[in-house]
Amino acid sequence: MSDAPGFRYMHTMIRVLDLDKSIAFYTEVLGMTLLRRDDYPGGKFTNAFVGYGPEDKEAVVELTLNWGREEPYEIGTGFGHLALGVNDIYAVCAELEKRGAKIPRKPGPMQHGTTHIAFVEDPDGYKIELIGLDTMQ
Ligand SMILES: C[C@@H](O)C(=O)SC[C@H](NC(=O)CC[C@H](N)C(=O)O)C(=O)NCC(=O)O
Ligand code: NI
Asked: Looking at 24, 41, 66, which one is the last position of a domain?
């Protein structure tokens, strides 16, 4: 649609069980910035937004904590991953492992393709794909 309204991709929301642990992972391990943290007492939840730049410039991740939730979420078979681009995926993965990150899929060429990828797991088990930007065709 040539006259489509100006959509802009803002964020992806994931529900987390321990907001401080998730914020620490996305900021201290993945190098994001905590952009804002909003409590909603009426809904008994908190949203924390993390990313590599301000929300009016970059898509970010919205971490949602439902107060009192203890049962792990079922991530399910539909969700795949969030993806981050990196230069020198091998050096980045070595550094992430030093920071205690779990990397269930070690860096290397993707199956059936040539781009080098890895998968990191966040505290709730969500997969974060690392894409070696310097290996993209
Ligand atoms: C700020 C904006 O980006 C939001 O996503 S807030 C939207 C709001 N979120 C929640 O209620 C989260 C807690 C909820 N228990 C959950 O786990 O989804 C939302 O979805 N509101 C629903 C509505 O109809 O307003
Ligand atoms: Ni949202």
From this structure: 66
